[in-house]
# Entry
Amino acid sequence: MDLFDSLPIEDTGLTAEQEIKALREELKEQNYKYYVLSAPTMSDREFDEKMHRLQELEAAHPEMYDPESPTQKVGSDIQSTSTQPSAVSDGFPRIRHRYPMLSLANTYSREEVEDWVRKLPTGVEIVAELKYDGLSISLWYEHGQLVHAVTRGDGTEGDDVLANIKTIAAIPKQLTNVPERLELRGEVLLPWERFEGLNKQREEQEEPLFANPRNAASGTLKLQDSKEVARRGLTCYLYYMLGEQLPGKTHYERLEQARKWGFPVSDAIKVCKNVDEVMAFIAYWDTERKNLPVATDGIVLKVNSLAEQEELGYTAKSPRWAIAYKFAAERQLTLLKQITYQVGRTGVVTPVANLEPVQLSGTMVQRATLHNEDFIRQLGIQEGDRVYVEKGGEIIPKIVGKAETVRDSDNSTSQDIGAFSFPKTCPECGTPLVRVEGEAAWRCPNEVSCPPQMKGRLEHFVSRKAMNIEGLGSETIAMLYDKGLLRSIADIYSLRQEDLSAQERLGDKSAQNILQAIEGSKQVPWARVLFALGIRMVGETTAKKIAKRYRSIDALQWASKEELTEIDDVGEQIAENIVAYFADIRNLEIITRLQAAGVQMEDVSNQQPAVSVPQVLAGKTIVISGTFTEHSREEYKQMIEDYGGKNSGSVSKKTDFILAGENMGPSKLEKAQSLGVRLMSEQEFLKELKGEN
Ligand code: IVH
# Structure
């Protein structure tokens, strides 16, 4: 029996209406992550189960019908269009599909497949195919020439990624003796081998890894650089032909025709005459698919006769003449021997399951992340349990549940999880752990001397996108740390040739190279230095924005939380982290040492406005509030400075006026009124700059 069959439907405690709304939200969000960001945070299985639940609820509550519900629409791979002209999305021309591009009804249950086949008119032939796990593409041929290659998009319109598709050698670009207009649909894929190579390369370059070949293929197809697409080595299988006056009366004949014209059509296709043949096909490919060079996630069954297809028709989202059977992720039962705890670069303590080694999808699995305390409590697991480990479309194995009643002493309920307790102190340095409200993670607050945090900080500081100090890899850092030569990022600039060449693994030459790279890092611009400092939650982009607003560390260290939150991307939490960073005297010491070493702590690019402008705002303190139409808030800040004014985050007696946009914050408005501070509209302000007021 399938494990999921035995899992009770979670009692959500919500009304049907609330549950429908919550599921719609969640599924829309997941669609976005899957199709647009190519980075899903939910397994396909979980997604499908939630979708089925929503379908059930909507069927029971027809009054809640909504054409915008994810049950009624296919997931869209088009970025939010609110700020983009409708003719392009993600930099690609947007094209309307001639025929809507639908998805398929799916099931994980073989019984449901049997039911579906049995309900078809008797004697109907069924074509069984593999369900390739990539992303769908529609190829348009006119007079034999490939003219467009359109992604599914929202099913109605998609992105024309022709240049990228042309890099796929197997796809014909020019055909002869074909109907005037022809459309072929299929799946674009990144073969396993290419996927692994790509991830290896990304790991070396410290770029985020793709979770699976599907995400990698979709990320690749949306690249603007076709040369890079060509290097990645996409491939494609076609499984559907559309158009008018096409040859053949059956789906199978059309695929055969497509193959003859030179299209890549899979060999793994069978015309089945009855349910047994269908089930045999499924059983065969369930194991055999593991030997294929590309990812598959199921079987697609299609009614062969085109006339019958027409008869059966479509729902809003999918054809009634086809169904997908999805393979369950591979799952094994094994012993959870021990839970250990790993302290990461940011001090987050992650529980790790140490398992009795078990074979799963071709690899030996002995460790799996347990994410955080809540995750363990939800699963209700503890050391000594037998647990299910699964490896689905995601490459990283995960624990999905436990086998019932295997612990002798187990008479615990879900509230009482006997032996499991999360450590109270850091397993590396003994500091009591803290859990920030609203966060799932326990964290070691000892940023300054907890060894993995220190090593992590050093690694981050030297990394390519930060100070780019080549030669100081994680092993060298760990060694120098353990020897006491590197205890803070500032120590990097005190390293001497003899310290380095005295190390066993470093000769004179590599010592010299490291010192040279350290010297070179003094040219790294201020924004990257700020990123390199490793202030919590200040990533590369945020650092750039902060550095643009505060052009030196001296300016930044006095910034208040309120002022910081005025910067795009800087919310309360980040602002708090920045203020806390500068409140710690140990960090100030490090900064002083970095400055003394010659690291760039200010923007040395031309700080003057390109054209000198009249200083009409000289001596004025101005507060910006609300949203604007002519310029962005950042631009207004810059303009205030360029015209000699001072920009302030909060309204006080010293404020000369408020540059007030739409929807000004109520507290600022109230304060301004009580102090009698003038509100100046965007238009008035622009006139003021021109000296027209
Ligand atoms: S037929 C109208 N056949 O699965 C029928 N789809 O959720 C169109 N897929 O969007 C689909 N292999 O991207 C079909 N052999 C196959 C397939 C296949 C993979 C994908 C396709 C589609 C999705 C359905």
